[in-house]
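Limitations

Structures in this collection are predictions, not experimental determinations, and the ligand pose is part of the prediction. Treat each record accordingly. The example that follows, with S-adenosyl-L-homocysteine as the small molecule, is included so readers can see exactly what is and is not provided: the inputs are given verbatim, and the output is the predicted complex.
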Amino acid sequence: MTHSTPAIVILGQGSLATARRIQQVYPAALIHGLAGRVEGADRTYPEFGATLRELYQQDTPIIALCAAGIVIRTLAALLLEKGAEPPVLAVAEDGSAVVPLLGGLGGVNVMAREIASGLQVAAAITTSGELRFGTCLLNPPSGYALGDLELGKRFVSDLLAGHSVRIEGAAPWLEQAQLVEDPLAQRSIHVGSNAREASANELVIYPRSVAVAIGAAAADLPSTVCAALQQANVAVQALACLVAPDTEMANPVLHEAAVALGVPLRFVAPASDIGALARSAVPEATIIATTNNVAVAVTEQPLDLTQVGRPRGRLAVIGLGPGAAELMVPAVKAELARATDVLGYETYVRMAGPFRADQVLHCTDNREEMQRARHAFELAARGRSVIVVSSGDPGVFAMAAAVLEALHESSDPAWHTVELEILPGVSASLATAAQAGAPLGHDFCVMSLSDNLKPWSIIEKRLDLAAEADLALAFYNPISRSRPWQLGRALEIVAQHRKPETPVVLGRDIGRPGQTLRTTTLGALTPDQVDMRTMVLVGSSTTCAFPRAEGGDWVYTPRWYGEKPAS
Ligand code: SAH
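Predicted complex:
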């Protein structure tokens, strides 16, 4: 198994130089620095323990630049649980020692050697099999799967005890290994896709070299696939992917089956029969049609999945939150990691980064919303994994509605079979409200004061009715150079229904560098205190403010209305 992109975690500024040297070994890896302690990391995190555990549980390889003991203590509770075990390494902050700690079967020793060679030191390898053979026999490279781990462990101890071994089949990665080979040896390493009986004298490694083509998805697909493999005498571990006609792309039964079997799905154009379907996906394969709906395509070498049909495209419209990394939801972080293409207004794309060199950025002007939405579908329909970036929440005066409108207007079936998901974010009104206290603690009304996409008359009408209804108000897009007078007019309308003492909260660049939060009143508020990066929250008749110990005010709107309930 090859590892996915590691996270380099540092606790202090003194580790940054070593972290950068490790990053040269893994250019896609991001350096995570402790907030307040490290300047210039790629990401900041608020708390070491929680961050390390989160990475571990997400199966992310961890390179921690700190004492091995700290890492062990931090992850100890998770080690008893069965689940992910990514490679975990401790590296001395001056780069003088590289210690693989966990994830022996996930390739931790390979990583330790790679990092050590980058830092020009020796890795602290302690695994006997590795030391003797120079490789972990139980951790074949990507494209291969180990038959049975427990039998494998015993097999490796036998070799360590001095037994010689034969190699059957193609195992190019073992050419460098220091094995005692003997063509007459009792013990063998067998590489092949056929199903084999488990045997203590044999280490079985399956190349993931088999695709199963499915004509039409039917109930209980995983059992159908397993039965077809069995009939073709192929081991289920050799399965590399499922292939289906692209007309079935959105069929949930297929996706559930792929998840159940733990393999990806690939799609090709519909074909005259199941054999032709399988052949068009894997032309070099031997095709064994088992029914007129299922065919098994077997090759010698592991399948290169980038060459098999195409995956279902994905389009995620994501909200970054106001700006601070801690306020970004984990689902959005995960989506950013899997994306191949990122679209959005340049400022937001930059806020969402840094990105890896293999991720394509498509920055556009903020006003080209529909064009951007259509471009996103064109890319996703080609099988890419596309992200459209918004700040805050994508459904609040942002890209989600434009993306849905583009889809609604389109009759292209390729657009409609794209896997579309909207991932929420913390909207500016909520981020600002939280910093001020709870000004939106009761019923409230959210409005954009921009008349670019709606007539000003409707804005006036809504303001008047919302103010009359005594709703607290949250104003997005309050003012801009091309809309200089609208905010003043809006405040006049609100003032007809609210007292001048009504609390107002102004949040500017909330969650971003240089953020400011101010509390004022409706009577004192003038449009020159507000710009297009400001969120304006106007209280209702029950909103109140009181001083807080740190300075400034707490502002809140009580949950009750009318008579205060007895408590
Ligand atoms: N989708 C975004 C809103 C986009 S409209 C969200 O959910 O937050 C843009 C307006 O949002 C700006 O004019 C400003 O009024 C407000 N805004 C966005 N980010 C902000 C921030 N970090 N601080 C204060 N206001 C912000």
